[in-house]
Design brief:
Layout (H helix, E strand, L loop, with lengths): L4 H13 L5 E6 L6 E6 L2 E6 L4 H12 L3 E3 L5 H11 L17 H10 L8 E2 H7 L6 H9 L12 E2 L12 H11 L5
Parallel strand pairs: 1-4, 5-6
Antiparallel strand pairs: 1-2, 2-3
Helix pairs in contact: 5-6
């Protein structure tokens, strides 16, 4: 049996509105390609360059719970703020984030990462020092590579010790594009 598109849309909107979802997600177009955005009732939990809804829904369900639906309303705030960012009308995000399942070190690094200002860069080593682990630059690199909420948690602002663009899960072309959008100067 096929459910009419209008009924399906109304069901998804109602589920999101009533707070019946563990995660609501949608796929949106952006200047850096299609992005999958996902949010829990606590905040944005995923921004992925891998916009395959089926694969992402399975991953989200393993971490956040089985009630995962494509529900555009659940990510309206994230869509709006990302659109403002990409169009030069936003330099800082006001979104709540949900880092459920992240280890304490990962949370510490991502909290510190969120403090790196728009248009500026830092290095993996500097970020490691800022979280009190000055010899953990490689571990910080691993956190950056697995950052579940790129752009909002701006791992594109982290560069190698010489200022070189290294290690971006979305690809170095996207990292460069985001840094240019922000007018960042490298070392």
């Amino acid at each position: 049996m096929t459910v009419p598109a209008q009924l399906d849309r109304r069901f998804r909107e109602a589920a999101a509105y009533e707070g019946l979802l563990d995660v609501g997600f949608d796929v949106v177009d952006s200047p850096v390609g299609a992005l999958l955005l996902a949010a829990t009732p606590r905040g944005v939990c995923r921004i992925s360059y891998d916009a395959d809804p089926e694969a992402q829904a399975e991953r989200l369900a393993r971490v956040y719970g089985p009630r995962v639906l494509r529900a555009p309303r659940a990510v309206d705030g994230a869509k709006r703020e990302l659109d403002e960012y990409f169009h030069g009308r936003r330099e800082a995000f006001d979104l709540s984030v949900d880092l459920t399942g992240a280890a304490e070190f990962t949370r510490d690094v991502l909290r510190e990462l969120a403090r790196v200002p728009f248009g500026e860069v830092t290095t993996y080593g500097q970020l490691a020092a800022r979280v009190g682990r000055p010899r953990a630059a490689r571990a910080v690199g691993t956190v950056m590579n697995r950052n579940p909420i790129p752009i909002v948690l701006p791992c594109h602002r982290v560069v190698g010790s010489t200022g070189s663009l290294v290690g971006y899960a979305g690809g170095l072309d996207r990292k460069e594009q985001l840094l240019k959008l922000e007018g960042a100067r490298l070392f």
